[in-house]
Write the structure tokens for this entry.
Amino acid sequence: MRAFIAVDIGGTQIRVAVFPEQSAIPIVQQRIRTVAEGQTAVERMIGLIEKLWPKETQVDSIGIAAPGFLDPKTGVVVTAPNIAGWVNLPIAEIIRKRFNVPVYLGNDANLAALGEWHFGAGRGYSDIIYITVSTGIGGGLIAGGHLVEGAHGMAGELGHVMAEPGGPLCGCGKRGHLEAVASGTAIAHYMADKIESGAPTVFPKGSRPNAKETALAAQQGDALSIEAFDRAGFYLGRAVADFLHILNPELIIFGGGVSLSGDTILAPMKRSLEDHVISKEYLKDLTITRTVLGDDSGLMGAYALMLSKLEKS
Amino acid sequence: MRAFIAVDIGGTQIRVAVFPEQSAIPIVQQRIRTVAEGQTAVERMIGLIEKLWPKETQVDSIGIAAPGFLDPKTGVVVTAPNIAGWVNLPIAEIIRKRFNVPVYLGNDANLAALGEWHFGAGRGYSDIIYITVSTGIGGGLIAGGHLVEGAHGMAGELGHVMAEPGGPLCGCGKRGHLEAVASGTAIAHYMADKIESGAPTVFPKGSRPNAKETALAAQQGDALSIEAFDRAGFYLGRAVADFLHILNPELIIFGGGVSLSGDTILAPMKRSLEDHVISKEYLKDLTITRTVLGDDSGLMGAYALMLSKLEKS
């Protein structure tokens, strides 16, 4: 019997899980904060892997889901904006040298798609778009039964397609991207601006509700909050129409905090999608659903990545 | 020895070529007009296949590249706007029943991408976007060494992504699609409007230059013609930036009549692309080139489709 060590590293926390062969239930898992005084994120990650390293089972490989731009072929993180010092970091090589087992690296959103496909909402489908809508917007693609990572692992940046030319500033520094008009951050910005300008709402003047608070208010009938989600859903649906024209998937999985608001975001998204597709054929056998794995999707994707390498070897 | 019969059917002409095994040079090929009095397009296609049917060689299969929405899995053309009567047409079954060999069907732009990948500009690459810019805009995708057709063969409709919300009417009936602002038709419309409104140009008032004529005038320094191509190139580059963010290809192949104008369209496209990518990493190893197969790409793609089925069986 062999074990597989899955790692999901983000700006806030590092998660490690040890999976036995042929089971989706980890033997052991733990999460720690990414940032701590006197230790780098890499040191903390190595420390947690050491702590959970199985004593009596051979480790097959380590799979790592990481944020930002990274190249799965070289195992190098080019930039990870949320983790200090992660620039051109050969993380796969560092971990391989330390533990002496094969190390596989993937982008967290791409691996979330892989995780949902193997273990979650995507089981049995071949053409899937996974879209995570939280503070930012990311994505992962399965096309014809293959994970689409692109030439250098930078595919699936669905938050950075043009949604409204000349529109609000995006986290990436460009204007009008989908993330700038439809993410949780975009919803919060829209609310703050409207509250500031005196639009009628349950929120007091000067307040800055986040997307979750706005969703709750929308569900209780607050007109401005409904408008904020309708606007985000409109842009999301128009972008999803483009994704359908490009990729013709049979399944769209929504993940991320904003998707937890359910129909508050998904109903206007679907209306907009129906308005913008060039043919109803794209919607005929299309399923739109939400993540099954939730926060575990990246970790499960790192595990699925190791299993896929196994199949190829 | 076996032979492979490739068919490329369009609104104007039907082309049939017979390929020997392991050669990209056809034994025989011929083209006829799609439309003729007293015969349907299907009858004309069958007639041409019969005429070229090899007498002393066994036929392995027939591969068909066709326009419009079609499902490669069922072999049914759902709609082909340019061919009268092609609605829910089970073309693969019709041809298979007539000739008693396996028949494979693919969208012409998707198969053009496959053709370029196997025999043309895409040889040796794994992640390719093929974009054809002529009267309309179409596309085909290779991701991770696999042709992306989508769940029902409708992937790669790159002309119908949103380029300018509220912009000019597209051939599909929606507004502001890439095809409506960057195709040859869009360039011609832009010229006609500007000439009508009295913009200075070498073209006389009331004239309606097509994209080819406009390209020649641009190359001779006509400011309005340069402006028309700069505008098309701007939109094309911005859309290509989105395609890079979604698919991270290593190669982009431009085909279609408008791409024959070379740098007249590609130089403004590249400037816009550089302005719109979120990271220079997307451009680092990116090659931008033009089709090698030209008009033969669909036919060669139909041949490549048959070869790919051979590999799988």
